[in-house]
Amino acid sequence: MKKYKNISLLCGLLLATFTASAQDKLSLQEAISTALSNNYQLKAVAVNKEIAENNATVGNAGLLPSVSLNGGGEYSNNNTEIEFLSAGGNNQQQGGGGDVPIEANRLEIDGASSINYNARVQVDYTLFDGFGNYYTFKKLKQNKELEDVKYRQQMENTVAQVVQFYYAVSRQQRNLQVAKSTMAITRDRVKRLKDQYAYGQVNKLAVLNAEVDLNTDSTKVLEAEQGYEMSLRDLNVVLGQEVNTVYAVDTEVVYQEELSAEEIMSNIRSNNASLQAQQMQVEVNQLDTRIAQAGKAPRVSAYGSYGWNQMESDASQVTYNQSIGYSAGVRLSWNLFNGNQVSTRVQNAKLATEAQQNQLNQMQIDLERRAANAWTDYEYKKRIASMEETGVERAKLNFEQTKERYELGQVTSVEFRTAQENLRMAENRLSNARYAAKISEVNLLQLAGMLIN
Q1: Secondary structure class of 262 (helix, strand, coil)
Q2: What pLDDT does 71 receive?
Q3: What is the pLDDT of residue 6?
Q4: Of 336 and 278, the one with more pLDDT
Q5: Distances (CA, A) of 298 to 46, 59, 60, 291, 293
Q6: β-pair partners for 77
Q7: Distance between CA atoms of residues 243 and 230, nearest Å
Q8: How far, in Å, CA of 108 to CA of 119, rounded?
């Protein structure tokens, strides 16, 4: 007897602690908003989105001119020996006006220094490269749009996780309420039987059976509380907050307004994030093919520069030289043959495009199957939830009538306990059915790209 009292007391203390710590209530919209702000996976995808935005510029595509500034200075000090020819020696050289005497002179300079300074500003611009830079820019913009779709896809995944874990908490919270209610009824039955036993109206066995039932119900309360706390941690991870944060949630499951199969299928074809991402990937590969084909075209570029150069030398006939001015020109380069590397790149790009197109075709077929199955699952799950609601109503009516007859002594404790257990299981089945129907609805809306809306 003392054993059962201790268990009941422990359970009561745990429930009191739980109730005190779960006064704050978190709505589904608040949970979604928190996750969209704090979820770390979403933040990681947002970084990739920002990188793609930074890359999608005409400068990265090579459509803008490049400007470079170069400059330098050099000093040298050397021992120099120079031999040069000059007129007036014994050697003679045949010339147009007669023989000219030539002599070799040698000059030795120790510690001859020379200084050279230069500076140049140069502008380079590609005039034509087979439109490779143009297609590169289109590819960068396409990659940006692809990352936008991937970000939306991650947002949908995050929202789907929030809804799934939120209603998992809701289900566990509802199951805990049912377990507490069941235990309270059993506790009243134990008290009633003890009073009857004191007046000799029932035997000791009836009291012991009721106390065993109370112990069972107390255990179920602890199990329900454990499930509730664990489901809270799962939700907190998705919300990006401290895992042991405790709060209550709405136990009422709210479904989307009436959906139609035609609307779902139409949105899947036009708005499914995975399908859109794959379509964009095909377009990216097509642009890769065009970029590779541009390698077969000639490349024409123009340049212009403004430079200054100054030279001073101790060991030269020209001891000082300075130049400053402009220069401009046009370059043409055409790779006529490089081991068929360009052709190989073009061929591989076409094969990659073909592979992505095949994946797109497969995805379209698979989405039709998944959509049909998701719609069937959604319809049946809602029908099951509706049937379970009817089952709870009947279980409640049966329990109330059994309770009245039990209090009048017309049914046994076993029959009363059976009616009580039937009600508890019916309520748990209803909670689970509503949760399953909601998750099925979320999966359907995510497939159709309607979850965020």
Answers
A1: helix
A2: 92
A3: 43
A4: 278
A5: 39, 21, 21, 13, 11
A6: 113
A7: 9
A8: 32
Region class of 383: left (phi > 0), else alpha (psi between -120 and 50), else beta:
alpha
Backbone phi, then psi, for 201, in 5-degree steps?
A: -85, -25
* Residue corresponding to tokens 């009836």: 206
Using CA atoms, how far apart are residues 44 and 58, in angstroms rounded to an integer? Answer: 26
Q: Which CATH number among 1.20.1600.10, 1.20.200.10, 3.30.457.10, 2.60.40.790 corresponds to the domain 2-66+130-300+338-447?
A: 1.20.1600.10
Q: Are strands 25-26 and 248-249 parallel, antiparallel or unpaired?
A: parallel
Which tens digits make up the pLDDT trace of 128-169? 999 999 999 999 999 999 999 999 999 999 999 999 999 999
Cα separations in angstroms, 101 against 87, 91, 107: 5, 5, 19
227: part of which helix (H) or strand (E)? helix 204-239
Q: Are 450 and 267 in contact (CB under 8 A)?
A: yes
Q: Is the pLDDT of residue 78 over 60?
A: yes
pLDDT tens digits for 242-279? 999 999 999 899 888 788 889 898 999 899 999 999 99
Q: Which of 326, 337, 323 is nearest to 295 (CA)?
A: 337
Banded pLDDT at 97 (limits 50, 70, 90): low
Find the helix or strand (DSSP H, E) in which 187 lies: helix 132-198
Instruction: Find where tokens 């706390």 sit.
Output: 229
Q: How far is the C-alpha of 447 from the C-alpha of 453, rounded, in Å?
A: 13
Res. 90 pLDDT band, cuts 50 70 90: low
Q: What is the pTM of this model?
A: 0.81
- Letter string b/e over residues 398-428, b meaning 16 or more CB atoms within 10 A of that residue's CB: bbeebbeebeeeebebeebbebbbbbbebbb
Strand partners of residue 87:
102
Task: Give how far Cα 432 sits from Cα of 47, 149, 179, 385, 387, Å.
Answer: 38, 34, 14, 8, 12
CA 41/CA 382 separation, integer angstroms: 32
Segment (H or E) for 352: helix 341-407
* Domain residue limits, the chain: 2-66+130-300+338-447
Do 127 and 297 meet the contact criterion of CB atoms below 8 Å apart? no
